[in-house]
Records
---
Amino acid sequence: MKIDIQSLKKVFGDKTAVDIQQFQINHGDILGLVGNNGAGKTTLFRLMLDLLKAEEGRVLFTPSASIADNDETNVINPASSENWKPLTGAYIDDSFLIDFLTPEEYIDFIAKANGVKRIDWKHIDDPESPMAPFLAFTHGEIFGQKKLIRDFSAGNKQKVGIIAAMFTKPELLILDEPFNFLDPSGQNILKKLLLSYHASSQATILISSHNLQHTVEISSRVALMETGRIIEDINNRDGNAGKALEEYFMV
Ligand SMILES: Nc1ncnc2c1ncn2[C@@H]1O[C@H](COP(=O)(O)OP(=O)(O)OP(=O)(O)O)[C@@H](O)[C@H]1O
């Protein structure tokens, strides 16, 4: 999925939350979005996912099939088309979850909504199960617990949301602060999960984080946001974005 942000503006009262003239995210980028509190990261993701309406401008998605066919007629504007939904997985916060369901019921619901095959919960240990890649991440605490999502810890809720965003194998994956609430082993497993998912799918992955080290470790590109604008676009294919970021955030 390729993403074009064009003259995008979102205002709350007298506060400009997002104001991006032009920004392109290439198919297969892993883009780390960093910036201080209130920089506009979540608002940008919400605009992309049509959870908020922009005052001005637009975001356009070009699916990978259209890129391969050189067919720009299939460009999707999420504000006016639903075609992006089967191609996209996202987890912004726990409002994405359904509290009164178990994780299995919630994932069944997401599978149905996305038209993907229902999980065989008796055989999630089978290497062919869509849940198999996530078992180390769940640490035995998510599935088979007969517990409602509302009764899970913040970290385990976060894991349910991330798994639900990923298991449908979306070509665009958007995760807002996915390392939040996770214990150190959960954070490390998540980094490996994201990198192996990217290697096998070439998906476009957008992640916001306050953890500069994790961001630098997994991103091919880092965008630095401040007061709604993207003020730096750092190539991190050589893993060298860390220095620029540390200098920027040095107070
Ligand atoms: N629903 C809302 N109503 C009013 N103001 C909002 C709303 N959502 C966001 N804002 C404001 O927009 C600005 C950008 O907020 P946003 O949550 O996008 O930043 P962020 O970079 O994700 O911050 P953080 O790192 O703290 O999560 C902030 O000033 C915030 O207070």
---
Amino acid sequence: MGFRPTSETFPLLLVINPNAGKKSSSEHLTKTIQPALDHAGVPYRVIETTSKGFAQEYFRENIRQIFIDFVQSLAASSSAVSAQQGDTEGVTGTGEGTTTTAAATTAGPPEVVLKIMVIGGDGTVHEVINGVLQGIHGSSPSSGPSFVNDNFRPKVELSIIPTGTGNAIATSQGVMNPQDALDRFLAEKSVPLRVVQVSQRNNNTSHTNTNTTTTTTNSNGDNDSSSTQGAWKPVVYTAVVNSFGLHCATVFDAEGLRGLGNVRFKASVLKNIAFLKQYPARVELFGPVQKYDRSSHQLIANATTTTTSPQQDQQQQQQQQQQPSVTLPGPFTYLMLTKQSSLEPGFVPTPFANTSDEWLDILAVQNVGRGQILDILGDALKDGLHVKQHENVEYYKAKVVEIETPTQGRLCVDGEFLDIAAGPEGRVRFEVVSDPNIQLFHLCV
Ligand SMILES: Nc1ncnc2c1ncn2[C@@H]1O[C@H](COP(=O)(O)OP(=O)(O)OP(=O)(O)O)[C@@H](O)[C@H]1O
């Protein structure tokens, strides 16, 4: 298959990972999706991934041209419609006023909605998101002028046909199978899909997946932080889950067990519980924080976020940016920072997570033994009961989270791995940034 950018109308890019989950993507494409799109009259281009990293590289290299072709094709179909109507409404066909509906025109900058359907799992979605953002912004939003700005800010609407193993994003929206996902795409309803910016300060960062290690060397000089330790540099964006400790070790070991199919996570978690470790780290939450209160069963705002005047509000915000609102000293048995409530059907580690809000949900379990973590994870499999039941489970919502490990550590970032140096040099920051040039993604629901 493969995709060739053309100037034809292509309202949909279809990215298929034939290797996802039980390798059923191709069958879903030919038997269900293509007939439905043909019936609905939706033209599409197919991009078939051939290896790990393919989708990310594809979008990094081609996203600019894709937008050019897309806008041109909308303009062309807009002028064709206006010609059919005798051009009575003065449509020029230059692309100005282009909206999602090719025929419609409005005042102001063009609203462009690029639709991408992913037939695969969360790893493929992660690659698409990172490829699009790297193609738009280069290595970081501060690395130079970007073609996405106040004058051109497209939406990227993702429809996820869940053929992967976990399918966390789809499952968290209650999408249980490919047909359900297809119906939702055709219904044309979407919500914002916020991504988490993962940043490091040091000049050399090692971002690893099981097949490749990418080392990024930042060019110094562009400071976007007042810290004496230098600017925060985005390393990767995540939409699913960031973790440390048992969950990260489980995902890492499960990669080596792909031959076992979908039971590889179960095998890996049992192994990591049998040889349970505690993972030393300090985690700091900055800015406003909400904590789950087990007695009232509510998320309660941290007292320090209450303000009385706009002036105090500003002062307090500055203080909150510098001083952590909450510090978790570790060591951690289990730590998860996520935008999704569920990681697979029935497993709901972070029940209050919302893909569209600007909070990062944090599940922290510090220094518990084998029996306790088994009970906690068992209750997480009962639609998130662990949060209500276990006093060793701490649940927060925060805007900014930083983690530092006293020895070399490993983080899982949407199924890929970030090896971090010991101490302040390796510190990692997670933030649901409000930059509208980053938060371009929407999700069909
Ligand atoms: N043709 C291919 N051959 C091998 N690996 C591929 C191919 N295309 C993509 N990949 C890689 O396969 C990995 C897993 O894909 P994906 O996440 O879609 O499925 P999954 O792991 O089964 O599902 P989930 O992430 O939801 O648990 C991704 O990291 C992706 O880069």
---
Amino acid sequence: MKKYPKALTIAGSDSGGGAGIQADLKTFSALGCYGMSAITAVTAQNTLGVSAVHPVPPAVVETQINDVLSDIGADAIKIGMLHSAPTVLAVANALEPYPNIPMVLDPVLASSSGRTLIDEEGKIALVEKLAPQITLLTPNLPEAEILLSRNVEEQKDMEGAVGALLERLPCQAILLKGGHLEGQQLMDIFMERGKAPLRFYAKKTDTPNKHGTGCTLSSAVAAYLAKGFSLEDSVKHGHAYLQEAIEAGKDYVTGKGHGPVNHFFGPEKLGEKA
Ligand SMILES: Nc1ncnc2c1ncn2[C@@H]1O[C@H](COP(=O)(O)OP(=O)(O)OP(=O)(O)O)[C@@H](O)[C@H]1O
Ligand SMILES: Cc1ncc(CO)c(N)n1
């Protein structure tokens, strides 16, 4: 009997196709996983920003998750935009019966253009109710600052920050992303509870197409977890996949603002004529 590696994303829809559910499903597909989705909110957005957010009722979010997991099942789950406390609680509730599925939570607190994508009570519920079920949390620096209530301004502050996040949040591991810092060499730092931190370096690519990098990275890690890799190897391979997708997408023009990365740089390259 053949079985696909299966990955579920619980996230918001990005009408522009570069972030959210759309980026997650592209990433799962590019990495050879069967992708499924539970949509938490419909956003109207494009490469210039988010213009509207319409939440899906929490009970409908919970039912999407129940229906997928009780029938098809998932080998890994990625969680993105949750929008509000009732949605966070509905997701925590629906996932509680599945403690053995690895879960990656990208704590989407605001869009890159600054629009808030979760409310204050949602943040508290995320830390208190959902984090205990999470294998890997993937905050960017502004999100880490919100979660820690202190500034993280340089690469040398990141190791202290990742340790402090692990003390404050009951998840198993953290990947703190340094993509928002100045400088030509970027660093992400990964730490599993009780282990030494690991650093992942990347040369900063000169590109306008960075929309959805966070979504793509967390889904790539989830895809590798679904395929049976260890957490450390999934982070390593997920980071490498994103770097290739950023590089492969840098010369394309999509919209007037921040375009997407190129998820399909493999054998069937997006944009190439047959
Ligand atoms: N210009 C770049 N070149 C190469 N890698 C980058 C670049 N910008 C960001 N990255 C990488 O992309 C990943 C996402 O980092 P970032 O800190 O931008 O997350 P994010 O803010 O959550 O993303 P998003 O903009 O999708 O919300 C990290 O691995 C980071 O190192
Ligand atoms: C739906 C959605 N999720 C996440 C992000 C963050 O990139 C976004 N802009 N939109």
---
Amino acid sequence: MSFDDAPIDPVSAERLVRGGLELRLVDHDDAAARDAWLHADFRGFHESAPSPERLAEVRAHAPRRRITGVYDPAAPLPAEPVATAQSWVAPLTVPGGGTVPLWSIASVTVAPTHRRRGVARAMLEAELRTAAAEGVPLAGLTVSEATIYGRYGFGAATFADVTEIETKRVRWSGPDASGRVRFVGPEQLLPDALRIVDAVRAFQPGAVRYDEVLLGRAIGLYGDDRAALRTVRYDDADGVPQGFACYRLTPTEGDFTKHTVTVQHLLGATDEADAALWRFLLELDLVSTVRAFERPVDEPVNWWIGDLRAARRRRLDRLWLRILDVPAVLEARRYAAATRLVLEVDDPDGFAAGRFLLEAGADGVGHVRSLGDEEASAEASVALPVTELSAIYLGGVSPVTMARAGRITEGTPGAALALERAFAAERTPWLVLEF
Ligand SMILES: CC(=O)SCCNC(=O)CCNC(=O)[C@H](O)C(C)(C)COP(=O)(O)OP(=O)(O)OC[C@H]1O[C@@H](n2cnc3c(N)ncnc32)[C@H](O)[C@@H]1OP(=O)(O)O
């Protein structure tokens, strides 16, 4: 189903009109309107103005999205929006391997000339109301600053590490892979990379479907990275591609033996593929540091390098989620322990507010029933804002820690621990590829 043309939210449109501004959909096929929108988007993130060639390249390789802009008819450049956003719906893998449609939001910018007068709030609220009106139960985004989105009910649900390894200290102690690592061109890699990403997505909670255009950009098929990126593929003993890595090398001035490898992506459908690719990168000659971005927080590499302190990791929040429909998202995932719990959810914007009885059996299947205001329940209960429920939803944030932090209130002693046991995921959630 396509949501690209879902109508503009009338509440936000009306609020912006009162400030002399217009909220509009941008037609994907209107090149001039999209170029003007891209100019605003680039400026919003402090990037240089895109050249005509860059605009043509981005237009040619951009997935179809629901693009919105806020326009100021009184501005000297009225065709260029003063605020931008884009959204699309993609499946998010949840614990147990099922998926939930995710209203994914990106490119939220407001021009410095129009900031702090409620334009971003109007756009974000419009996105959430539109998603809910279209029946999409969950919204998600990655953030530029961790202070912006909590006020709209988003909570950080997945994390990733920037990992830096001193290669001169590494003594490989991981598995000896039975397959081969090979150099491949990005054109050759793309179909295999798509299969590998999909294979990982099937078992990895927190993964969001990544379309072909974005994956092509990620592996250097087009975009600025093309010349600098090296791409390798891991083929298992039967010759089946099971993983890939994309990296670039930077020399250290004055010492040719100390290049830094920056790993853009390293993704294996099997642990053996991950191990083989890590080993390949860590054993490159003339290299002293391997720095890898967006790594899963529970990957085994620390136990493959023979010296735990050769690796330094810095953790960052990645996917922020915002639940819009509590029963729909809770019933889509599986539970690690049988449970009967009442969740009292506070949501100032109304979408997710209510009291919900969650019952999960030993088979992991959950059933959710909304309780009436007066309906008594003898079950253990927790009270929590929608931000916290969204944060713990994938099992990557501890309800016990949230209770200790005062963000979740136990109605019954031990209820946070029961929630933690039920919400545990088979793997720590990981977004896999950032959007
Ligand atoms: C999913 C994504 O795309 S993430 C990318 C976000 N975009 C950027 O970082 C680009 C640079 N920044 C911007 O373009 C703008 O400053 C934005 C989009 C972050 C905010 O736009 P504005 O129109 O100024 O925000 P608006 O006036 O609607 O403020 C809404 C609320 O957010 C708060 N807020 C706005 N910007 C920030 C910020 N950078 N940090 C913390 N709080 C903020 C405001 O104080 C206000 O709070 P309140 O409603 O609780 O009083």
